[in-house]
Design brief:
Length: 430
């Protein structure tokens, strides 16, 4: 592990800065939208722009990298992300913010693709799993740290937006100073929609609805907390708990899925998330009242942690379950197809959730999570009655962040072996 960190520190450091800014930015925009009295529907529409951009970027980035190269693409889109956040502080308008979020989404998927294809190129068959684990810890850990930066200054000020820009720009320094030659970009083809559904109907449907859940969860959690009159510190705590508890849960849930029927673990996880979403509503009571009158948030935090434990490992479960039904050679293509479906679902998540919140109030946030997690669970029960469990010795659970791109999925040590790096691993990857 020390060798991996030594050889990959520049890329890991750059991605750490990017994710710190990303975590900070998501909470900042959500709280600012509430303070500016955007309607919940406008806020959901605005926040969904990120996933529209992510989807657009995922389709166009291979051509851009092939023409321009990794370093220029990373520098260009990190600079664009740094610039865009500053415009948020100048023009306060939901439609303008939606367009800016589209640009942010395009920038982020380009950055992820560059980083993950670079890591994949510089990894060997022996250390891909370790590289992926470190990468995931850095992504979740720095994103959690970034959420605490919400306490830096009032979201109504321009200083937090400048800080996001500064952190994003800092990510360029280690990447641009690398001496290492960038890798050759390899295009990854996804399975056709028809073939993916035939291989795993549960994986197909779950990936789509899980994208809907996750996009709303990460973009509107701060909006929910702000609407419930949480302090800035409390908003930081609850968003931090989401990132960290989800990362910790990946490994025990994954171990269970390798021991027991993976579909049962998936169904139990999604129904568990549904139950804890309802429990979060029941204990919210009078949390929104001013200090001294509000009920304690302790039980809310506990149930929210349990919700995160059940919900956040689900993309990795869905990916592993899909791999159970296909040959090893198709693992990466299937993962790319699932990411496509995830992105389709994600584009509608924040907007749909905002409608639930408009109709029910702030707790419509958890009603939304309960509803879509239940859909996945019910479909899973149906599929278990239709198809017998498949034993695939090549498939196993591997923890993956929800933001993983097809290039990052190749880091999964169970995928088709990649060629060893052309140069020895002791060199800096850049």
């Amino acid at each position: 592990m020390n060798k991996i960190l030594k050889n990959s520190w520049a890329l890991f450091l750059g991605m750490g800065f990017i994710m710190m800014a990303y975590g900070f930015q998501g909470s900042l925009l959500g709280v600012r939208a509430v303070q500016e009295e955007f309607s919940l529907t406008s806020t959901g529409f605005m926040m969904s722009g990120y996933f529209v951009g992510y989807f657009i970027g995922a389709a166009t980035i291979p051509n851009i990298i092939s023409r321009v190269g990794h370093i220029r693409v990373f520098a260009a889109f990190a600079s664009l992300a740094s610039l865009v956040i500053l415009v948020h502080s100048i023009i306060i308008n939901p439609l303008v913010w939606f367009l800016l979020r589209v640009l942010t989404g395009i920038s982020m998927v380009c950055i992820y693709t560059v980083a993950e294809s670079w890591l994949n190129d510089r990894s060997s068959n022996k250390n891909r799993g370790s590289v992926l684990s470190i990468y995931m810890v850095i992504l979740y850990g720095t994103m959690g740290i970034g959420m605490f930066l919400l306490n830096f200054s009032s979201p109504k000020n321009f200083q937090p937006f400048i800080l996001v820009s500064v952190i994003t720009s800092a990510a360029l320094i280690p990447i641009l100073l690398t001496k290492k030659k960038p890798p050759t970009f390899k295009r990854i083809q996804a399975m056709s929609i028809k073939n993916l559904y035939e291989a795993s109907p549960l994986g197909f449907v779950s990936s789509f609805f899980y994208g809907t859940i996750q996009s709303a969860l990460f973009t509107l959690l701060a909006v929910y907390a702000s609407s419930m009159n949480f302090t800035i510190l409390e908003i930081s705590v609850v968003t931090f708990l989401l990132a960290v508890s989800g990362a910790i849960a990946q490994f025990p849930v994954g171990k269970l899925s390798d021991i027991y029927d993976r579909r049962k673990v998936l169904v139990v996880s999604t129904f568990g998330a549904s139950i804890f979403a309802i429990m979060a509503i029941l204990v919210s009571k009078q949390m929104y009242l001013p200090e001294g009158l509000a009920t304690s948030k302790t039980w809310f935090y506990i149930f929210f942690i349990l919700f995160s434990f059940c919900s956040l490992p689900m993309f990795s479960l869905i990916l592993a379950h899909t791999n159970d039904n296909i040959s090893k050679e198709k693992f990466v293509a299937a993962g790319a197809g699932l990411q496509f479906l995830f992105g389709l679902g994600a584009m509608s998540g924040p907007f749909l959730c905002s409608i639930f919140m408009d109709l029910v109030g702030p707790n419509g946030f958890f009603v939304f999570l309960f509803f879509f997690h239940s859909i996945i669970g019910l479909f899973g029960i149906y599929r278990m009655g239709v198809r017998q469990t498949v034993e695939n010795p090549d498939s196993q659970f591997v923890a993956m962040p929800q933001t993983i791109t097809p290039a990052g999925i190749e880091l999964n040590p169970t995928t088709e072996p990649i060629e060893e790096p052309e140069k020895i691993a002791e060199e800096n990857i850049g």
